[in-house]
Amino acid sequence: MQDSRMELSGESRFSEAERAQLRSYLDQLLTSPLFANSARKARLLKYLVEAAIDGRQLSEYAIGLDAFDKSDSFDPRIDSAVRAEISRLRQKLKEHYASSADEIVIEIPQRGYIPAITRRKPQPAAQPEPPPPARVRWSAVAVGIAMLAVLAAGIVLWRSSSRQSVNSIVVLPFQNLSTDRGDQYLADGVTEELTNQLAQWPDLRVVARTSASQFKGRGVDVREIGKILNVAAVLEGSFERQGDRIRITAQLNRTSNGYHIWSKSFNAESHDMLTLQEQMAREIAATVRGAAQAQPPAASDSTSDPEAHDLYLRASYEFSRRTPDGYRQSLELFEAAAGKDPAYTGAYRGIARAEMALVHITAEPAAEGHDRARAALEKVLALNPQDTEALGEVANLDYRDYWDWPRAEHGFKLAVAHGAQATTRSYYGWALATRGQFKEAHQQFRIAEDLDPLNAAIRVNQVVAYYLDRDYAGAEGMLQKLIDSKLDELDGHLLAGLMAIYQHQCDKAAVQSEWNTRAFPAPMTTFGLGLISACRGHLEQARAQFAAAQKPSGRAIVSPYQLALGYASIGDRDTAFAFLEKSAQAREGQILYIKYEPLFDSIRSDPRFLVLEKKVGLAP
């Protein structure tokens, strides 16, 4: 069999003639004995090839639903049917091409789903065999020639392996090797911007920074990272500044075997850092996608002003500290970056993130901070109407803060159409769950988790969707994952206690409360004890505990919505509705749970409940 190949075209860039030729060849292939007696394999191959032709991204979950008619509850981590069938299909294709002379060759990469489609190069006419060479008597020469042949074969095999397309990648936090520890913000900036720029490339799944940051400084083997994040390659590197010179070193390793795919060092003046990052992203993307001549997608949040860029990197670093002072400093720096470059969309998105973060740590009315955040996001969309993060954030505000579901849903759908990332998918899933669209919600969550596997907020939102749907088994399974991962133990144990109370498992709830008592501030702990007392029928004791939970302790408070839950659990309708009105007035996001909240079953028939549902946009 001839094995000299040339690519037809990179994914999503097939010409019309190539598309027609591929579909004609596929029809012919599916009538061969290999597929004629296996409708399942034929359907799977057709689905995968059409995805390659159309340039669509694929996930194991999507394949399960579309090609195997799995239900929306299909979980690829539990059900291995898709992986098993693709493995069998991969082997069948190898067997077919081992004995055929087809001009077009379709192969499925070992750690991917998008087929590699190549065309065999025509071989030159056969040349007459030369006469046998004179016999060489020195056996050492023969051994040396044999060793060179083996070495050459190994190099060819390595080069062939290194060129295999990579369809998923994670950028680990770059190390700061500068003598000045204050340059950490620059190392973090390299990580963030390479992640963002690589995410612009079609058909390349880039894991979000939230998950990547979990491996900072841990020295985990790339093969283990590949298993945890389900990625084919890991990009890691370092940043170093000496005076006005910077040096960035990066290497790309394949997770299946830990082998290097690509490595390079970049040197430049400090003011050329923007250009350097773009060059790196272009070379990395060309390496992993096999598209050396391709033009990189335009970065949606870039700036050509080095000072604005430096201010943005400093702001991002301060924001990542997740402290009140860090949020305030980041807001000032993001605003300064936008002042330097009024067309810098990344800076405006940063302003919005900082404003929304500050809402949670100040006594200022949430609506005011959200209005300022929305104004910043509107500037982003004025500059780039297809900015998926801004579309998602605005849609989230439209629903949580302004209770405008039609407008929010339109915004979410626009963001998804333009390639929404994990956070927007999670927002959308949460919103759908509060409206009872649980099947659609879990579809969004699964995509979000695929893009950001270690994001605790996504898992918390999944738990919310399960309990609103009264699927307590599903909620408990997700909670256990959340607790075991130690990503967010506080919310994990609190929600686990609530799940037990919903199922009237009072003793189990008390076990969770013991953990919460050690970890949570007093008001929340007291509120939890009140729910357990109500669960056990000790209503007056519960009432006293709910009253005690209303006494603030610093910033540790129990929200009006939570207090409404408590008073509903002891049958005090009037007090429950009073706190629900306070929750609505404060525009708490939780108020949107009311339509499906189990603890409100006892007051749901009250006419005041329907009035409240209409007020927050949950009823016509």
Verbal overview:
The protein has helices at 16-30, 33-36, 39-54, 60-68, 81-98, 139-162, 184-198, 209-212, 222-229, 273-289, 306-320, 324-340, 345-359, 366-383, 388-400, 405-417, 422-434, 438-451, 456-468, 472-485, 489-502, 506-519, 522-535, 539-549, 560-569, 573-585, 607-615, and strands at residues 5-7, 104-107, 116-120, 168-171, 175-176, 205-206, 233-242, 245-254, 260-269. It is an alpha/beta fold and 620 residues long.
Task: Furnish the topology, listing elements before pairings.
Blueprint: E1 5-7, H1 16-30, H2 33-36, H3 39-54, H4 60-68, H5 81-98, E2 104-107, E3 116-120, H6 139-162, E4 168-171, E5 175-176, H7 184-198, E6 205-206, H8 209-212, H9 222-229, E7 233-242, E8 245-254, E9 260-269, H10 273-289, H11 306-320, H12 324-340, H13 345-359, H14 366-383, H15 388-400, H16 405-417, H17 422-434, H18 438-451, H19 456-468, H20 472-485, H21 489-502, H22 506-519, H23 522-535, H24 539-549, H25 560-569, H26 573-585, H27 607-615
